[in-house]
């Protein structure tokens, strides 16, 4: 047995000397324990395969963590793309709906304009027809008076009846006017015939 022992810091210390067999046993146990720790440390450093396995396990753990992180990032990117596509779809739908409403409003406005113009044209035609009817009615009345003075009484009565019927039924005025003209022509022919006799 040597008179030196290794200390906890790796340096050697001088034994103070055993004072008895019990103390000597305790020193031996401490020395064995220290040597065991040192041997384990040296064995761990010398175990290249074990260290390589530990390193590979560490790298696997890091790679797994990286894979999980990449999957999470990809999922988040996918959700963002999906949200943007959905938002773009809603925007397109809103714009199409707005364009449809605009076309509908313009079509309705154009329809109202056409309806107003048609109504105005109808009133104009109605006014002109009414004026023409009054003019024809006046002329027929004048012709009736002329016939009344120019033709015999029975023909004059027929013309008056026709004129009165035209006044009561202005829509039949054109027919009455034509009839008045025919009667006037007949009256004039009858007068000429009587004048030659």
Please describe what this structure looks like:
A hairpin with a 5-residue loop joins β1 (5-6) and β2 (12-13). Strands 1-2 form a two-stranded antiparallel ribbon. It has helices at 21-46, 48-150, 153-168, 173-196, and strands at residues 5-6, 12-13. The relative contact order is 0.04. The radius of gyration is 64 Å and the shape is rod-shaped. α2 runs antiparallel to α3. The chain has 197 residues and is mostly helical. The protein is 86% helix and 2% strand. The termini are far apart. It is built from four helices and two strands.
Key phrases:
197 residues, mainly alpha, two-stranded antiparallel ribbon, 4 helices, disordered N terminus
Short description:
The protein has 4 helices and 2 strands; from the N terminus they run ββαααα. The chain has helices spanning 21-46, 48-150, 153-168, 173-196, and strands at 5-6, 12-13.
Strand segment tally: 2
What proportion of the residues form beta strands (DSSP E)? under 5%
Order of helices and strands: EEHHHH
Q: Please count the helical segments.
A: 4
Shape: rod-shaped
**Helix-strand category:** mainly alpha
In helices, the fraction of residues equals over 70%
Radius of gyration: 64 Å
Mean pLDDT: 78
């Amino acid at each position: 047995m040597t008179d030196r022992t290794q200390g906890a810091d790796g340096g050697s210390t001088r034994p103070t000397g055993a004072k008895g067999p019990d103390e000597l046993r305790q020193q031996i146990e401490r020395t064995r324990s220290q040597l065991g720790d040192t041997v384990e440390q040296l064995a761990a450093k010398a175990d290249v395969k074990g260290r390589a396995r530990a390193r590979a396990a560490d790298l696997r753990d890091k790679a797994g963590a990286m894979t999980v992180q990449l999957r999470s990032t990809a999922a988040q990117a996918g959700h963002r793309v999906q949200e943007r596509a959905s938002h773009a779809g809603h925007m397109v739908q809103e714009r199409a709906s707005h364009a449809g409403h605009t076309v509908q409003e313009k079509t309705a406005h154009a329809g109202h304009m056409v309806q107003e113009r048609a109504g105005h044209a109808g009133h104009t035609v109605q006014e002109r027809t009414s004026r023409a009817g009054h003019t024809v009615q006046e002329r027929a009345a004048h012709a009736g008076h002329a016939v009344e003075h120019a033709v015999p009484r029975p023909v004059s009565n027929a013309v008056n009846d026709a004129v009165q019927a035209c006044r009561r039924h202005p829509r039949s005025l054109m027919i009455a006017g034509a009839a008045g003209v025919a009667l006037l022509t007949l009256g004039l022919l009858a007068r000429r015939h009587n004048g030659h006799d």
